[in-house]
Amino acid sequence: MGEIEMSVAAYADLRVVDRPVPNLDAAEQAAAAFLHALGISTADEGLQNTPRRVARAYAEMFTPKPFEATTFPNDEGYDELVLVRDIPLRTVCEHHLLPFTGTACVGYLPGDRILGLSKLARVVDYFASRPQVQERLTKQVADWLTDHLQPRAVGVVIRAEHTCMTLRGVHATGSTTVTSTLLGTLRTDARSRQEFFSLIGIGGTG
């Protein structure tokens, strides 16, 4: 790697390059037009400022928080799992622009460097701050850790409830979607995989 501190912005995936600054005025006008097109008047007192609130809410959800991805040399040669469980997750389904929320469990087997623990949550938040699908989000977090830590293994499991399933369509209230990405020895070694799933509370590894 060579550098101890790296700007996470330099490692955005290829789908998001030079993201423009949100134009809140244009977004507010579009939100008002959207409501009017659905037959909803914004003349009532309770709805007068709704387009502005909608614009600001989506701008907040789609703007990742900058951070420095601080890494440290693994001087002690630590060779067991580093795992952060139940990282809160919120993002927006790219198909319906409805939220999905849940938790992420992120772990890795260190190589020569280790990552500051809080940065595992930061990486999840960074890739969640855009329209997403859960499968891609899971893989993006795992690939980022692999590319920039060169660990011996990475495991990411996301459990989320999608309001595009619970509030519309099938109305599957209470349903949870689980996705996982396992790389390195967590994918190839059954015992390592079993340990990872056991630590995050998932039984049965296949």
Automatic annotation (TrEMBL):
Transmembrane segments: none annotated. Its EC number is 3.5.4.16. The keyword Disulfide bond does not apply. Residues 28-200 form the GTP cyclohydrolase I domain. One of its GO terms (biological process) is one-carbon metabolic process. Pathway: Cofactor biosynthesis; 7,8-dihydroneopterin triphosphate biosynthesis; 7,8-dihydroneopterin triphosphate from GTP: step 1/1. The keyword Amino-acid biosynthesis does not apply. Keywords: GTP-binding, Hydrolase, Metal-binding, Nucleotide-binding, One-carbon metabolism, Zinc. InterPro entries: GTP-CH-I_C/QueF, GTP-CH-I_N, GTP_CycHdrlase_I, GTP_CycHdrlase_I_CS, GTP_CycHdrlase_I_dom. GO terms for molecular function: GTP binding; GTP cyclohydrolase I activity; zinc ion binding. It catalyses: GTP + H2O = 7,8-dihydroneopterin 3'-triphosphate + formate + H(+). Zn(2+) binds at C93, H96, C164. Gene3D superfamilies: 1.10.286.10, 3.30.1130.10. One of its GO terms (cellular component) is cytoplasm. Homopolymer. NCBIfam families: folE (TIGR00063), PRK09347.1-2 (NF006825), PRK09347.1-3 (NF006826). Belongs to the GTP cyclohydrolase I family. This is GTP cyclohydrolase 1. It comes from Mycolicibacter terrae. The lineage of its organism: Bacteria, Bacillati, Actinomycetota, Actinomycetes, Mycobacteriales.
